[in-house]
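Sequence only, no structure available. Ideas?
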Amino acid sequence: MSSISVCDPVTRATTTFDALGKHQVSADPLDFLRQLERRVRAEPIQRFRSLGFLSYDLSRLFEPERMVDCRASGTNLPLFAFTAHSMPTSHLPALLEYDRAMPASEYAVRSTFTRTAYVDAVRRVLDYIRAGDVYQVNVSQRFTVPLTAQPYEIYCRLLERSPAPYAAYLDFADFALISNSPELLFKVTPDRKIITRPIKGTRPRGQGMERELLESKKDQAELAMIVDLERNDLGRICETGSVRVVEPRIIEAHPTVYHGVATIEGQLRDDVGFVDVLRAMFPCGSVTGAPKIRAMQIIDELEPVRRGPYCGAIGYIAADGSMEFNVAIRTMIVKDGLVHIPVGGGIVADSNPADEYEETLVKARAMFAALGIS
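Reply:
I predicted one. Tokens follow.
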């Protein structure tokens, strides 16, 4: 997916929560998505696409009895929003106007975790791993700073400093998403081949760092767990025997980091639609952990706010049958004059809590630089 920019949604779904944390909606959001796919597929223009995002919290609708969550949202954004285009646009003017106050360097950066609290959360995960509850859990924190530039300007700075293969800018007037994602959740081709490319393992660019990541037993094991999870997810929606691991692990170089990446593919069954793919694969195992449901329950316990668009997906559905969605990591959320910068990492049995905290800072580096924060 090349870099995309969109504005003006035509479809949104919002939700509220009762006292037990269960969704209260006027209509089924999953039905909205099924209808969206049918409308797109009916378009006579094969290059027609509907572009948008899916919140991480949409996943609760797939397991409503097992995923109960009473936390604050932190951003109060819709479960999803989509817009329609004959082709995605690559350049848009900045659409939102914000007051500028002081240079970003003068602002204190706030987070949902202190360093000590994040390290403690990692230790809690290690306790769960030792108890046999899970093999891996992804824990994230969310930094927040006031907005001091146009969101589209920030996006352009980010692409200039750290271009990513699945970058996206979505402007919905009352909020914007600035994504610099390196990770593919799934791509479906017109002939119904589906590909996923999970990422596990990160090192900053520097001498010896690529080899260190390549030889890291911890990072090898972390990615192997997610590859196994994604193979299982694809097996639920693909033709029997078609799922295969194309690349078990390679090291990819990005402008500020190295990543460990795998590639898995399969052939979708004829009866599988967009919502079926989401039910099997969403959210990506690389941003939850394994086993997925238990890992997500632990995430809900440890993270103080809901993730919202972060760790969800951004992408498109096309009239020719193709679909492509990133994993919405390295994704900033702009709303109400604030920029939220969520970052996290996968915790496994031999994780070092202090190192895991530092890894989140490495992942935030390019986003902070685009905001003028050192």
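The radius of gyration is 19 Å.
Hope that gets you unstuck.
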